[in-house]
């Protein structure tokens, strides 16, 4: 076996090898025997033409296990529920539109864009109505941003570590390139009144979901998203338009946006009082905790996966922060005793998902893999225990604790707390 | 076919109006050449469409209701899921009683919600879940009064309307810590 440049305990290898050497350069990679042992035949698909071009493409039928994890709605609350992005089955950082997570509070409306209106009113000089066609004509701006539900990873606050996948635990998280019109452009046109300090936004779904955000954010980087990864945003993401509030809890990015009303204080909608508030142990609650905390997650190997061989594996995952860019991601393979920096892909964009990678030599012994992100403002991802200590045990929102995956001697990967 | 005779002036006005409505021509740009396509609308035209009720009662419609009236609305529209006494059901929130410090905490309109306006706003826009916006404003006032009454917040005969709303004191009014200015 070649002598690796070990960077931390239990087999983590210096990330510099990601750049200079192919994985095969390391000694003990075992090539899949079932294919290598056979003399290859020319396959059937190389001997007859396949079907021609199609109008709207679909994934290979061999990848149809890559799906959102969708929960059924309770019949008494039709359309209410969520689906989760299969994070552990994807690579890179962009979530395909069909796999972007969903959270609906009264189903997905079937909106005819010709009938849809965005109305800006309240404390403005002149209330205005915009059609979908109007907004398409404005100067567009494109940004790659993550979106995370405030309740993502809520199961990790539970007393027992559930044996399940990364998607089940953390799949209310996605990332896309969003394109649309800056909200500030439209607010300027309506004329912001001198007393306005908050923006109330509501959607055109059956719940008419409403949220309030401070005007300072609305004027900074909030925009009306019309496109998602280059195509019109999907109905389940708010077609024909959603408000997009970068870095903040997903619920404030109101889908099917139809109303922007300027006012001098928050509306205190149901989803910013009864829900999406964080109960503390003393019975008080935090309200309007907007940015999503710095966070990371190893997506492979991850829960319910199985390592098929000893030797070299790539440990990879995602990191993000609602406070800005990701500065570093550290990885540990020995339960947190030693850590080393992972390689970050490309140039991490502000408020987008960042992909990290590091080579790991699995010797066949037990291991606990975990990652810890640090953002550009110096926030370090806390342990699960540190997050739990902040809140009432009933709180399920804004969990950003470190995720630990245990690897058994059989290679089985499980969600663990310690 | 009958065609009204239009003066030159009114034809010109019509063309101008349609140009503005279509959002084209000079009406679509400001002095600095920015696109401006918003069409003016008056706040009065948004009554009945704008459903937002703010904590101080702004946005409340006319009408009124008492808990005594609201009991019937509640039993017809709400009790099947939320329970006869507001005790909730499988995956359906409890509406009455509770505490933010019990184990586990029980967060209800009575124990948690900081403003009565939120109850009115939410019931009117989103309840009942199978037929949102089907209650009249009077029914919303009535059933909100009833839910408040079940929590001991108003009496059975308290007349809830846009003027009396400010008198309603929610038990957990001071239970929240505002993080909105923390960046």
Describe the structure.
The complex is a heterodimer of chains A (418) and B (183). With 418 residues, chain A is mostly beta strands. Chain A has seven helices and 26 strands. Chain A has helices at 16-20, 33-36, 132-137, 166-170, 183-190, 215-218, 384-388, and strands at residues 6-8, 12-13, 69-70, 81-84, 102-104, 117-122, 128-131, 141-148, 173-182, 198-203, 210-214, 223-228, 231-232, 242-244, 257-263, 278-279, 285-287, 295-300, 311-320, 326-332, 340-341, 343-344, 354-362, 367-375, 404-407, 413-416. Mean pLDDT of chain A is 94; it is low at 24-31. By secondary structure, chain B is mainly alpha-helical. Chain B folds into two domains: 8-37, no CATH class; 64-167, Cytochrome c-like domain (Cytochrome Bc1 Complex, Chain D, domain 2, Orthogonal Bundle), CATH 1.10.760.10. Chain B has helices spanning 8-22, 67-77, 79-82, 116-126, 137-150, and strands spanning 39-40, 64-65, 160-161, 176-178. Chain B has a two-stranded antiparallel sheet with strand order 2-3. Chain B starts with 7 loop residues before the first helix and ends in a 5-residue tail after the last strand. Residues 1-26 of chain B have low confidence and may be disordered. The chains are: A mainly beta (418), B mainly alpha (183). Chains A and B meet through strand 6, strand 7, helix 3, helix 5 and strand 15 of A and strand 1, helix 4 and strand 4 of B.
């Amino acid at each position: 076996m070649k002598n690796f440049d070990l960077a931390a305990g239990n087999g983590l290898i210096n990330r510099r090898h990601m750049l200079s050497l192919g994985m095969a350069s390391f000694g003990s990679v075992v090539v899949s025997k079932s294919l290598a042992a056979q003399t290859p035949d020319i396959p059937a698909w190389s001997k007859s033409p396949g079907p021609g071009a199609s109008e709207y493409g679909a994934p290979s039928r061999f990848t149809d296990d890559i799906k959102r994890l969708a929960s059924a709605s309770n019949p008494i609350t039709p359309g209410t529920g969520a689906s989760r992005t299969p994070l552990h089955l994807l690579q890179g950082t962009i979530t395909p539109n069909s796999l972007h997570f969903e959270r609906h509070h009264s189903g997905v409306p079937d909106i005819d864009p010709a009938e849809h209106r965005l109305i800006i009113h309240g404390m403005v000089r002149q209330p205005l109505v915009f059609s979908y066609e109007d907004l398409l004509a404005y100067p567009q701006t494109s940004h790659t941003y993550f979106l995370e539900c405030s309740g993502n990873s809520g199961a990790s606050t539970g007393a027992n570590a559930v044996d399940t996948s990364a998607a089940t635990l953390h799949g209310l998280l996605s990332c896309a390139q969003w394109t649309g019109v800056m909200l500030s452009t439209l607010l300027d046109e309506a004329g912001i009144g001198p007393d306005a300090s908050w923006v109330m936004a509501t959607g055109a779904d059956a719940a008419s979901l409403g949220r309030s955000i401070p005007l300072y954010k609305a004027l900074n980087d909030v925009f009306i998203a019309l496109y998602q990864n280059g195509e019109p945003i999907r109905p389940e993401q708010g077609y024909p338009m959603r408000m997009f509030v970068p870095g903040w809890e997903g619920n404030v990015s109101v889908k099917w946006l139809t109303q922007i009303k300027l006012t001098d204080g928050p509306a205190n909608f149901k989803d910013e009082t009864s829900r999406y508030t964080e109960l503390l142990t003393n019975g008080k609650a935090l309200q309007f905790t907007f940015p999503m905390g710095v966070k990371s997650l190893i997506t492979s190997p991850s829960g319910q996966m199985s390592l098929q061989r000893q030797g070299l594996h790539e440990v990879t995952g995602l990191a993000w922060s609602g406070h800005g860019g990701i500065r570093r991601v550290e990885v540990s393979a020995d339960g947190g005793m030693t850590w080393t920096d992972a390689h970050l892909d490309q140039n991490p964009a502000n408020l987008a998902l960042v992909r990290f990678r590091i080579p790991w030599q699995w010797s066949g012994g037990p291991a606990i893999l975990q990652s810890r992100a640090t953002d550009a403002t110096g926030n370090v991802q806390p342990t699960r225990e540190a997050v739990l200590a902040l809140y009432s045990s009933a709180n399920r929102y804004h969990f950003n604790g470190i995720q630990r995956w245990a690897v058994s001697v059989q290679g089985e990967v499980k969600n663990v707390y310690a | 076919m009958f065609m009204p005779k239009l003066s030159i002036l009114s034809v010109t006005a019509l063309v101008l109006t349609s140009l503005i409505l279509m959002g084209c021509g000079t009406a679509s740009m400001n002095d600095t050449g920015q696109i401006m396509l918003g069409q003016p609308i008056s706040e009065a035209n948004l009554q009945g469409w704008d459903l937002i009720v703010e904590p101080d009662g702004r946005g409340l419609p006319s009408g009124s209701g008492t808990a005594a009236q609201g009991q019937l609305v509640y039993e017809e529209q709400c009790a099947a899921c939320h329970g006869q006494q507001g005790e909730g059901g499988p995956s359906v929130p409890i509406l009455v009683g509770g505490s933010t410090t019990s184990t586990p905490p029980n967060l209800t309109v009575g124990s948690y919600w900081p403003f009565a306006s939120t109850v009115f706003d939410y019931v009117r826009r989103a309840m009942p879940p199978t037929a949102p916006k089907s209650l009249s404003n009077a029914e919303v006032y009535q059933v909100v009064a009833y839910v408040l009454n079940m929590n001991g917040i108003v009496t059975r005969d308290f007349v809830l309307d846009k003027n009396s709303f400010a008198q309603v004191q929610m038990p957990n009014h001071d239970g929240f810590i505002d993080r909105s200015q923390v960046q």
